[in-house]
Design a protein that fits this description.
The protein has 268 residues and is an alpha+beta fold. The chain is built from nine helices and ten strands. It folds into two domains: 2-149, Ribosomal Protein S5, domain 2, CATH 3.30.230; 158-266, Alpha-Beta Plaits (2-Layer Sandwich). The strands form two sheets. Strands 1, 2, 3, 4, 5 and 6 form a six-stranded mixed sheet that branches. It has a four-stranded antiparallel sheet with strand order 8-9-7-10, covered by helices on one side. A hairpin with a 3-residue loop joins strand 5 (138-142) and strand 6 (146-149). It starts with a strand and ends with a strand.
């Protein structure tokens, strides 16, 4: 069994309010890139996880990894031995762990089927996990678990992801948000929402990680359709008219900033 854990990006992220339970009311436009971590699974007498890849070292406790917690959350007659190729940076605003969990849910769905309450089980693992199970463009509300599927007019759009290789935890970014409600997501098709929407976590993330602004400035020089930070950072994305423009931007940034991580793909 093979699955790609598709990188999640927030084409827009509007933070509306702090909640009494410590979470935040959000309105976000989720989209997914056709690349990410890779998972391979085989039948086993017990659940097992092996992690390889560039960012495997960041997952220092395999028993606490969200892949293992996703397996534990789903009833099955047999165990699964999973090899996770960790290609996405950790604490990067790409929902990497949530995407890995989503890929596990799809593996179990295709092999054994999912229980009727799989959405609730997914949400207990993380607010992004339900959206990552389907990995299709949608609007998320509440903490991000109330999903509204959309037909996207941006499917196939070339995208470049860039990270300055600086991890940035979600909690401190939300804590640094100034608490101002700047209004709801715009209405319209996906491209309208993406073009007119904003990321309310961008300013607090830049306060904590100034290199994000360097990445955004470098992307803007390449004249994308849109460039912004994803989630709570520090990964930034740029959408382009065509593959040639994206690939040219990737070459320029690789030459000027060889220490930055990048990934090329297209929106699903």
């Amino acid at each position: 069994m093979r699955q790609t854990a598709y990188a999640k990006i927030n084409l827009a992220l509007h933070v509306r309010a702090r909640r009494a339970d410590g979470y935040h009311e959000l309105e976000t436009l989720f989209a997914f890139v056709d690349a990410g971590d890779q998972l391979v699974a085989r039948a086993s007498d017990e659940d097992r996880l092996t992690t390889v890849g560039e960012f495997a070292g960041a997952l220092d406790n395999p028993f606490d990894n969200i892949v293992m917690r996703a397996l534990t959350a789903l009833p099955r007659p047999d165990g699964l031995a999973i090899t996770l190729e960790k290609n996405l940076p950790v604490a990067a605003g790409l929902g990497g762990g949530s995407a890995d969990a989503g890929a596990v849910f799809r593996m179990v769905r295709d092999t054994f089927g999912l229980p009727d309450d799989w959405r609730e089980r997914a949400a207990r693992l993380g607010a992004d996990v339900p959206s990552c199970v389907e990995s299709l463009t949608c609007i998320g509300r509440g903490t991000g678990t109330e999903l509204e599927p959309l037909t996207s007019d941006l499917t196939g759009t070339p995208v470049l992801l860039v990270n300055p290789r600086i991890p940035l935890s979600t909690g401190p970014v939300f804590k640094a948000w100034d608490g101002k409600d700047r209004g709801p997501l715009p209405e319209g098709n996906v491209s309208d929402i993406a073009r007119e929407g904003r990321n309310d976590l961008r300013a607090p993330a830049i306060q904590l990680c100034p290199a994000i602004e360097d990445v955004l400035n470098a992307l803007e020089v390449c004249k994308p359709l849109k460039a912004d930070m994803s989630g709570s950072g520090a990964t930034c994305f740029a959408l382009f008219d065509d593959l040639a423009a994206r690939d040219t931007a990737a070459q320029i940034l690789a030459a000027d900033h060889p220490d930055w991580w990048q990934l090329k793909g297209q929106l699903r």
